Amino acid sequence: xxxxxxxxxxxxxxxxxxxxxxxxxxxxxxxxxxxxxxxxxxxxxxxxxxxxxxxxxxxxxxxxxxxxxxxxxxxxxxxxxxxxxxxxxxxxxxxxxxxxxxxxxxxxxxxxxxxxxxxxxxxxxxxxxxxxxxxxxxxxxxxxxxxx
Length: 148
Description:
Distance between the termini: 24 Å
Low-confidence stretches: none
Order of helices and strands: EHEHEHEEH
Oligomer: single chain
Helix content: 25-40%
Structural class: alpha/beta
CATH architecture: 3-Layer(aba) Sandwich
CATH class: Alpha Beta
Shape: globular
Number of helices: 4
Strand order of the largest sheet: 2-1-3-5-4
CATH superfamily: Response regulator
CATH topology: Rossmann fold
Largest sheet: 5 strands, mixed
């Protein structure tokens, strides 16, 4: 049976969507990832663009509120932003949440290239930190290539 992971952010528009896409694409044989927000909004098109750059299509993802997962259980619940970490209950679906924080790329300013660069940076940081997390949980071997 696959491990179930829920990624949480405030609006479920960028970080949690990218984390869901990364895990389902690269680790889908071991893990099923979901994402939600403390409030639903929309999937940020620049997040979709950043993921398409590495061959992952999240264009059909939808922003979901945490209540969409009421009654479901997860092996891991991971908050990716400070607000979600502060406002979500300590236990979700019977699972204690873990916080792995990232800057919000939607707050990036500057040229279109500057903003895309920030989304790429956060995407790559999510890949790196989740690799460490799942190795610590013994879901990945030390020498196992993950996000390649």
